[in-house]
Amino acid sequence: MLGYNNLAPDKVPLLRPTPDVARSSWVKHDRDRLFNDVQLASIEARLKLDRKQRELWHPVESALRAIRWIHDRTHKERSLDLNSEELIRLRTAAVPLITTLRNDQKEEIRTLTRLMGLEQLASQF
């Protein structure tokens, strides 16, 4: 046993599994959210925002965090309501940021929306 060569077997400390309480203390993942915190951080990093753009990003991030998927009655299909209050809020928050983006940043947004299958959402801007 590593580091315990001189101890009697009954004196070697036992490793105990992490209690279930600690595992359950994590924040529950909300599967209805369009983006989780990791995805939002990744988007921000990929855009390589400057200091001024980062200030404009925060309202956009907040609006993105509020968007939820709509499920059909069987919960097999999900969609976005492009006229929802959350998407109207996103459009309002995004305009100031979009006007400051460089061409490479705009292309990154186009790429991300295509990868996520959200072309219909991107066409609203």
Give the % helix: 40-55%
Please tally the helical runs, counting DSSP H or I stretches of 4 or more residues. Answer: 6
Structural class: mainly alpha
Distance, first to last CA: 62 Å
Mean pLDDT comes to 79
Approximate shape = extended
What is the domain tally? 1
Biggest sheet strand line-up: 1-2
> Strand fraction band?
under 5%
Give the strand tally.
2
Low-pLDDT ranges: 18-28
Computed Rg: 23 Å
The largest sheet is:
2 strands, antiparallel
SSE run: HHHEEHHH
Structure description:
The protein is mainly alpha-helical. The protein has a two-stranded antiparallel sheet with strand order 1-2. It has one domain. The N and C termini lie far apart (62 Å). The radius of gyration is 23 Å and the shape is extended. The chain contains 6 helices and 2 strands; from the N terminus they run αααββααα.
How would you summarize the topology of this molecule?
Blueprint: H1 20-24, H2 37-47, H3 51-66, E1 70-71, E2 78-79, H4 85-98, H5 103-115, H6 119-122
Antiparallel strand pairs: 1-2
Helix pairs in contact: 3-4
